[in-house]
Design brief:
The protein is of the alpha+beta class. The chain is built from seven helices and 13 strands. The protein has one domain: Sandwich (Jelly Rolls), CATH 2.60.120. The longest helix is centred in the middle third of the chain and has 11 residues.
């Protein structure tokens, strides 16, 4: 097989052949793709049962409908607090905000601290909450920790979630969500629990506009950052060297 590959690329210079890679187009399982290359969020929702063993506890993804209005644009609802997923889990955001991310920009990873009851071990608390009693939403201290629910109005978002809660399996979920201006199966909203790191990338050809609700009002002390250097765009090293020389 190796000799066949060498013969195939013999028309290239040796330096180019040494750097050459080919993409693996083998169809992988949705379970593996969710944690590696990623999926469209529509595929994630359709495969919810198949992904049960790798789903991050507390994360909710629910579809949104975008209604086309011929000749005028479109209409889409964000949510109704008296029905649907937010009503089922008892999450009523205390603050709403909007954000714009220019194309090719990124945010994160961000993480919010979970509220652990006094005298209870974190691992045991999370296992009780999400493994033993996953449907007992009344026990969740929404008013003492920040949960996020995110909606996307324009653009294309790649989201990556990482479960960092003590006592729970470290799981990764990676998927793309389309803004309302791109109606289809990948229109969705996402609920993110505290203790789950989250990063966003604007990967489309236009700016990404999002609206998000939080279970508590903004608290800067709850904005933890992990691996967020991507947000601090630096000049290329050769530019920095050149400017340093010019200052002498």
């Amino acid at each position: 097989m190796e000799s066949d590959s060498n013969e195939r690329w013999k028309g290239l210079k040796p330096a180019a052949r040494a750097r050459l890679e080919t993409r693996d187009y083998t169809n992988d399982t949705v379970v593996r793709r969710l944690a590696t290359s990623g999926l469209g969020v529509g595929g994630v929702m359709k495969a919810r049962e198949e992904l049960a063993d790798v789903w991050i506890p507390g994360v909710e993804i629910f579809p949104r409908r975008v209604f086309q209005q011929k000749g005028r644009g479109y209409f889409s609802e964000l949510t109704r607090l008296n029905e649907g997923v937010l009503d089922r889990i008892g999450l009523a955001p205390k603050q709403w905000a909007s954000a714009l991310m220019h194309r090719d920009s990124a945010k994160g990873f961000h993480i919010h601290p979970p509220c652990i009851p006094e005298g209870v071990a974190p691992g045991q608390w999370f296992r009780d909450l999400y493994v033993e009693s996953p449907e007992d939403f009344s026990r969740r201290p929404y008013d003492r920790e920040q949960w996020d629910v995110m909606f996307f109005l324009t653009g294309l978002c790649e989201m990556i979630l990482v479960d960092e809660r003590e006592g729970l399996t470290r799981r990764v979920m990676r998927f793309t969500i389309s803004g309302d201006n791109k109606p289809g199966d990948d229109n969705a909203a996402v609920v993110i629990p505290p203790g789950v790191g989250h990063a966003l990338r604007s990967i489309g050809t236009e700016d990404l506009i999002m609206v998000y609700g939080t279970s508590t009002t903004f608290n800067p002390d709850w904005e933890g950052r992990i691996g967020s250097a991507i947000e601090n765009s630096q000049l290329p090293a050769d530019w920095t060297d050149y400017l340093a020389d010019a200052a002498d």
